[in-house]
Write the structure tokens for this entry.
Amino acid sequence: MTEVARPDIGSIEAVENGLIGANYICNRQTATAIYLAHHLRKPVLVEGPAGVGKTELARATAQYLGLPLVRMQCYEGLDESKALYEWKYGKQLLYTQILKDTYGESLRGITSMAVALEKIADFDDVFFSEQFLEARPLLAALRQPHGAVLLVDEIDKSDQEFEAFLLEILSDYQVTIPEIGTISATVPPLVVLTSNDSRDLGDALKRRCLHLHIGYPDAKLEERIVDVRVPGVERRLREQVVAFVQKMRTFELKKLPSVSETIDWARALVLLHVTELDADSVRDTLNILLKYETDIDSMKRHVSSIVTAVN
Amino acid sequence: MLVEFLRAARRAGIAVSVAESIEAFAAIDLIGYDDRSTVKDALRLVIAKSDEERERFDECFERFFGMGPSGLGGAALLEFDPAAPLSPEMLEALLDSVLARILLDDDRAQLVRNLHAAAAEVDVASVRLFTQINQFARRILEAMGVEALDAAIGRLRGTGGSEGARIADFLEERRQAVAELARDLVERRLAASGGGEADRMHDEFLKDARLVNVDRRDLLRMRVLVRAMGRRMASRYGRTRTHAKRGHLDVRRTLRRSVSFDGVPFRTYWKRRKIEKPRIVLLCDVSGSCAPLAHFLLLFAYSLSEAFSDIRSFAFATSLIEVSEILEKESIDDAIAAIMRSIGFQSSDYGRALGTFDRDFIDTVDRKTTVVVLGDGRTNYHNPRVDVLKRVYERARRVVWLNPEHRVAWGMDDSEMLRYLPYTHVARVCNRLRHLEDVVSELVKAR
């Protein structure tokens, strides 16, 4: 197999432009993180509020680098049999059946136990071998011939044990399967971990990662994002939408609207043929931006004043 | 330079491991020093691991690499114009001093380089106390060759005539500016390196200070500490809830799962032991006598309720109300203000408060509950209703009483502490942040 040339990742600007090519607008900090992660071979731990594009970053990076994206969603109770590998029990069972038959034939006539054991030891033991290994996301990522982008999503949802188990993969890009041995990555994958901060991650894990914090974007960045993600949105509406959302983030709300909500909202407005924000259309579509009844109620009072402010 | 910065970062309270230092060097190798913001981004990615550390990092970075407003390019350097041509003798006099040449050429970049080189030479990063500033500044100047400059100025004055005097004046003025720069540099390094240490010392002091004596301006800082404590407790507390208990086969589960393998028990399941989170019922005295303390107790209750799901909080003075909801819903300031408004500063009546608790909320206490009472036990000579506490004691898993008063004062005057004492599992003096921390970590351990 020939080496597929990776796109030039020679500078931070290249990363920035590459990500734009993958429909992902980011600030310089984010591009720097990917650049460093690539060259230092370190995983990136992305933190930030929900919906600012943490997962999207991994997807865009994969697209930009032309690598497959291997995604692993973490949840409480996730263990290595779901994350790393599992034995193909059915096939193993079948194998033992065959084995039994073969053994039966070759052991016929042997009466002493010691001789029988010796005979058995002569057989190849493939019961635990890669043939019977069912690769789960982590192992699959390591086995990709040209490397991969491995996304470990919402690592904070997993258990502490699982976190500890990840360490080997994150630092050495290898996994140890007790029955077989150590499997190293052909090409180390670019690892992106995301966290919503629902619990503190262990120091050991933190130490191994680059830390990228993605916050809410400023107005300029957000406008660019909306522009790219929502084709057909008029410039005027775009400015208003972004200004409105930016304003809204200054309020005390249970859940502040994130970039993904801004995009959804802009899409909805385009669908509804709204060309200019007015208080009524905002009120009708507020449930796209806010996810809590109480938030919606408290915002409804301010809608008209904000609309006038952004117009 | 980078080593110095990492040292400063460490002192600013960011945990920078050796591995991270290596990482930082590798990152800088990769991107170079050309672009300041890129350097900052890269170092932040490598070093800062939490919001708090990111903040500290930004601060530290600006302090360390920043060129404050009084930095190079100050007015003093620009005003003077050395337009007059130099005669060969004067040049001769100046040639001895590199510094003089740099100043005359107005080569700022070189000046800054020299300044930093000199700073590194005298190990300015080891500055700890502000009394050392002058000393370090002087040593930097010496390392930059200020003596040769002085000699050159002297020669100019001696032999240069009016033209020489003019240049000498100019050089002296600039020398002054350089001295300022050196001083400024040392000050910034001190701020970058010593600042964290001073903060930490202050924090330690606050932990030990009596809660009632804490200055108003320290309240904010204190708050941060209390919340950090609450979080720490929570993360220690909220960890693994199930623990594998090896050795006991869960036969039913194993058999059930073996069905898909034709009844061959391929995977074994082991019995797991569930560790239950203890429930906490918090009774907090917010009466006049406890008011200064009550603020912190409520603060603590707040951070606990942020961290634990199963906590019921009650505040009492003359009467008793449940405050769980307020603490959960409102922001910290609003919550405390609301509670203090509604029942704070009344005189305490433990009997009545306990009576209310007995009547309305005794059901919240069961075998798994830890009851924490925060109060001085001063009943204003009302009936203490020890019987209620006894009932609580019998029902609860543990009763912990935290008293802000010193042990000696227990039982004096209207304090009924000694009568309550038999019906508590633990009674502690608690008037410092450190006490609070100790008690809570004990609560966490004892399950």
